Amino acid sequence: MKAIPICTIRLLDVTINDEPDYKKMLLIGAFEKVQNSLKGEKVEGIEPELFHNQENKYSGIQLAAYKKTAEYTAIGETEVATLNFWYEQYLKSTGEAPQNIVLINETYVPAFIAYQQTYRVKTMLISDELAKELNNMTDKFARWDRLEKYLYGNLKRFMRHIGYEPGEQFLKVTIQDIMHYDTSKPVYHGQKKTALDIRFQCNFRLPQTLRLGQSTAIGYGRVS
């Protein structure tokens, strides 16, 4: 399979807070800027809806706070093209030459590997339904088994997003450790979600920009 492009844009002069509703406002603003710039025309490879469309199976464009500044990341050809188009319009609208900006262009080649690679996903949000299901389980290993299935489903969703076909190979996910955060994490409109810090192993190479779980569009669930 050909390499998947990944682009990260850090606007070091743009200070943002970590409030989900604020990030959502910025993503909606990016959507509107791209849409207005297109003036109703359909341009191949540019999709404004990628900026936090609720119908997306995987959020290909994400916004996080990097040391309290804005960091946008796009994974995939269309996503990168759309983010770069927005960035061009953003520079035009400011009327200033870019100053403290970091642009990171990467390539990622998805592939199964012959061993179990260890990863960690921080602040992974889970659905209310799954949280209730886990709370009703008294057996530790049953909870871990359920979360392994949840991680498996998230990884398969990402594989579909990048168009990867596993063929006859099977994805294996094994949880090594789980930490529960003391407090739930805020999402939109005052709602909160249960957050977990999970160390796991799997036999698939993952990009360093991958996010898993819910509300990845606003920076939750970073894998390292």
Strand tally is 10
CATH structural fold name of the largest domain:
Alpha-Beta Plaits
Outline type: globular
Radius of gyration: 18 Å
Sequence stretches where pLDDT stays below 50 over 5 or more residues? none
Helix coverage percent of residues?
Answer: 25-40%
* Quaternary organisation of the protein chains: single chain
Taking the alpha carbons of the first and last residues, their distance comes to 23 Å
Number of helices: 4
Domains, number: 2
Q: What is the H/E order?
A: EHEEHEEHHEEEEE
> Structural class of the helices, strands and pairings?
alpha+beta
CATH architecture of the largest domain: 2-Layer Sandwich
Strand order of the largest sheet: 2-3-1-4
User: What is the makeup of the main sheet?
Assistant: 4 strands, antiparallel
Kindly estimate the percentage of residues that lie in beta strands according to DSSP: 25-35%
Domain Cas6b C-terminal: 119-223
Protein name: Cas6b C-terminal domain-containing protein
Organism: Arcticibacterium luteifluviistationis
